[in-house]
Amino acid sequence: MDEILFADPAVFGFDASLNYEYGKYTLQLIIEAKGRLDLASLAACLPQELNIEIKYDHADPFSHRGKRQIHYLPGTIG
Fold this sequence. Notes:
The chain contains two helices and four strands. It is mainly beta. It has a single domain, classed as Alpha-Beta Plaits. The longest helix has 6 residues, at 39-44.
């Protein structure tokens, strides 16, 4: 996700989570940016069957120390 989202110079930070519900995966992103992302360009970099939800809010990229991870919500995998 870092390579995809931080390729846009408008993006300051983001948080991501993956949710599985009703047989579909949804990538939920909280993005801090100085503008809106091009959703079509973002979707082109991700699996076609993946739903994407974006919320624009404060997302400090340094609030989580260590390797960045996508957090799976309860009941999403396995």
